[in-house]
Amino acid sequence: MAIQPGVGYTFNASSQGTNLTIERPWAPWAAYPTPEPEEPCFPFKVKNVKEVTEGESSIVTFEICPGTVNNLMPQVYNTISEEFEYLDDLTAGYKLVLEFDSTSSSIVYLRSGPDPTTNAFPQAAPSGGADDPYPRIYSTGTALDTDTDALAYLAIAKVNALGDGVYSVDQYVTGSLWADRIKLGTQTAQYYYARI
Amino acid sequence: MGFLIGNFDSPINTWAGVRGALTQTALNPSTFYAGNQIYTENFGYFKTTEGNGLLKRGLDPSGFAAALTIRINPSTSDLEVIYFDENYHDEVIGQDVENTSAEVYTIAADAIAPSSQVLTPGPTTTELVAIGLFEPIT
Predict the structure, then answer these.
(1) Residue-range domain boundaries for chain A
(2) What is the edge-to-edge ordering of all strands in the sheet holding B3-5?
């Protein structure tokens, strides 16, 4: 058997046997990148759903890839900073929590609405508050709300709890969106979405 | 939960085919394939006062998305509401239109195509300058 020298170690053969000399010791295992490949992203992809224990209870966290609605970057609630942050500018160490209130599934959805003053849809800048019409990502363990004149709801993905901490994702939206809000007279506004 | 627009193999599914502005002059073209239609100023186009200005198109007799039209027909002097999705009929009926002669008429059910509304007294001019629930695109 022939053993070849490599980077960081050498072999020396003599009549006494073969010596292995390690000139460059390995780094600790933790210093190497995780062997699990990163899931590829596309706009609004929901991924890395996992159960996390917090104290005596457990929560389900997820990640979502950045995508745009009418060229606007939606916001999502970061439970660490306790603020709504842009999908493409989340604070390092962020945590997005799925709502699994009463069912074994959770719908991740986009909520957006018109500027109450100009009717421009969606509202072009965040205004804060619970009813902010600027595009936001939420999740719900119940049925998706019905569209109103003020707010529109679009299911992006559904996360299913399969048991034993395993989750599957049914992805409904696979790209950035362009949306229209159509309204005539007293009729409730209708919302149209196209993938761009 | 809204409507997803997708396939490009059907004229009624393209972005421009699904919704458009209101016109009083352009009955043709009756199909819209391009997604970037521009509504020229001073060409008789109107937008809704609410929403983003556009409306879901109706279909012409051939099944193609058509131009939403409210006009006083220059040939017959009748008031016509053409290619409107039937969901909009109740909203449009009862709205006032005004022509360049400042004559005001209220849209009746008869105006909905294929019938037309006989205007009494007859209009002096046929160009509309105001339509209820709409405003001119300027």
Answers:
(1) 46-180+188-195
(2) A177-182, A190-195, B3-5
CB A98 within 8 A of CB A108: yes
Global pTM value: 0.78
CA distance to A13, B57, B59, B87, per residue, from A152 (Å)? 75, 21, 26, 20
Name the token pair of A102. 């009463």
Per-residue pLDDT reduced to its tens digit, A112-143: 999 999 888 999 999 999 999 999 999 999 99
Q: Distance (Å) from the C-alpha of residue A148 to the closest C-alpha of chain B?
A: 10
Distance CA B22, CA B126 (A): 16
| Distance set, CA B78 to CA B81, B88, B104, B131 (Å) | 10, 20, 13, 15
Closest CA of chain B from A88, distance in Å: 24
Pick the residue of B1, B36, B49, B89 with the most A CBs within 10 A to test the interface with A by mutation: B1
pLDDT in tens, A161-171: 998 889 999 99
Structure tokens at B111: 């105006």
**Rounded Cα distance, B103 and B129, in Å:** 10
Distance of CA B96 to the CA centre of its chain: 14
